[in-house]
Amino acid sequence: MKVLFCGLGGIGQRHLRNLRQLLGDRLEVHAYRVRGQTIKLRDNLTIDEGADLEADYAITVHRDLDAALAVAPQAAFICNPNALHVPVALACVKANVPVFMEKPLASDLQGVAQLLEEVRQRRLVFHVGYQFRFHPGLQRMKALLDSGFFGRLISVRAEIGEYLPNWHPYEDYRQMYAARADQGGGVVLSQIHEMDLLYWFFGLPQSITSHGGQLSGLQIDVEDSVSSLLRYDSAAGRFPVMLHQDFLQRPPVRVFKIAGDAGVAEMDLLANRLRVYDAQGELCEQDAFEGFARNDMFMAQARHFLDCLESGGRPVVDLQDGLQSVRLALAALRSLKAQREIRLDEVQVDE
Fold first, then answer.
1. HEC states along 57-77?
2. 29 forms bridges with which residues in the sheet?
3. pLDDT tens digit string along 27-56?
4. Which of 20, 92, 175, 255 is the most buried (most CB within 10 A)?
5. pTM (2 decimals)?
6. Which helix (DSSP H) or strand (DSSP E) does residue 268 occupy?
7. Which domain covers residue 274, as residue numbers?
């Protein structure tokens, strides 16, 4: 299988390792590369000293995107900085290449309408990489929600905090995409997974109000801490969601909690522990997911994408789904700047 990688940083290399494991020698790797760094990373994001990325994976490197697409890849993995996602995706789609897009779909809405139309016309598989959809603990929480276990929802809380300089030990954090406005960085877009989870569980809120900004001494030009209140009035009920995202916390934290008048569930994604409580407040279910590793989510996602390529099936997070978390993120950023509540219907693709 001929696969084109557009970006081979930490996440691009993870996808490459997983595809190699799944496809073995059937995988033919091409890469559109601009910086051309040859460091090879391990799963824990440390450098494999003495190794050569391009040589070890037998990568055919292209410095021009048109030349890379001329080899007729059967899929493209877009793992470059956020601000470059849509232009590269458009080129791939126009060449009739199915796409696996790393999150987020985009850092703004420019070009998204055209991308939607091109994908629709060509009926291409287009998957957006939200691997937490494949976490067994979150899947269990979604099943509990769908079954009505929680009763009437009271509140939802999602928190993600991690010290940015610890993300990629192999590079200067100030040069990372997440730290740079010109590359579509900032905590809201870089930690957008929780927004996708909220959309997956509850759909879009009516509005969002966000506070925060660049609150630390980190040498970055983007927001590093944002707390948002999301207002839901939907089929799932009327309830608030509290979402916190930051580049600062040590030790890191990642928690997703649903509280209703008939039950509560909390997933600690770092401890990898789910706890569920019944209407009497008694612990009725817990799971530490023994044997589960973080990369298992990525492997499940890769298998799903390959299955969609073979069957032509709809990805669990297609282009339309991937757009909704971006709308939510852009609404949060607009609220942060305008210092007011922003309705989701104010953020539309045709802007």
1. CCCEEECCHHHHHCCCCCEEE
2. 3
3. 999 999 987 677 899 888 889 988 999 999
4. 92
5. 0.96
6. strand 264-268
7. 136-287+325-346
